[in-house]
Input
Amino acid sequence: MALDFPTWNMGYLCYPDVQEYLKHKDIVMVPVASLEQHSYHCPLLTDSIHCEAITKIAAETAQVLYTPQLWIGYSPHHMGPPNLGLGTITVRAETWRNLMYDICRSLIHHGFNKIILVVGHASNMKIIDPLMRSLKYETGALIGICRPWAENYLGIVADLIEGPPEETPGWHAGELETSQVMSVDEKLVRMDRAIKSERTKTPPFLPDSFIKKDGTPSVEFEGYNYFVFPMEHREFSDTGLIGNPLRASAAKGAEANRRFGEHLARALRELEKVKVEVHNREFVHRV
Output
């Protein structure tokens, strides 16, 4: 049976619409990303903009509800020193985990059995495993994550990317992210401010024998990646940029968002077939 809603964003629906949806489906998406500096040319909401765009495409394709975009994420490494005015807003790891836990428990309370977190900000992944496991163990609900980005894994958008691997085109405010924001609203991207490209550098607190090649937490030593250090983003990228935004285009971003969204939609259709029994639904500790 085809459902007929004006939108799949449940924040714009009335509660009888949610009740009707739950008669037919028990799956819901929760898009979550960040608000953080993205170089001179991309908006603070870059991660959230492309995350919501991808979620919307998936929702419309698979006819699956999603919650309003959660723009707050875990971004301590993007704060910079005091009084610099970078605009990043972060929350502590336990705050973010508790917030996401409460959102998911609320959805389970209402009757959803399957929750897919659409995560548009990679650093959120650093604290997400305990969240998923606690929800699974406590309720029996199916909890999963979709990570529709292309940092050091270009995946389904590899043929769209023009920049060579050494430009790390899928990274921060580079070719791909700039394109994705342009496809949503070109006015949000200040290409007049964009610089040609910026590659990562080794943080100054490490000796020259260590090499930082991208935005991952790992650092190469003797040609291998066995070491991880807590780093500020500005210690390996002066402006928050990793990549070459001058290769970006709105058409490229629209195609990337479409591919990510339709890939997610196909997964949602498969997950709809899964039978899930929730054994602990009421959110008793909600106060």
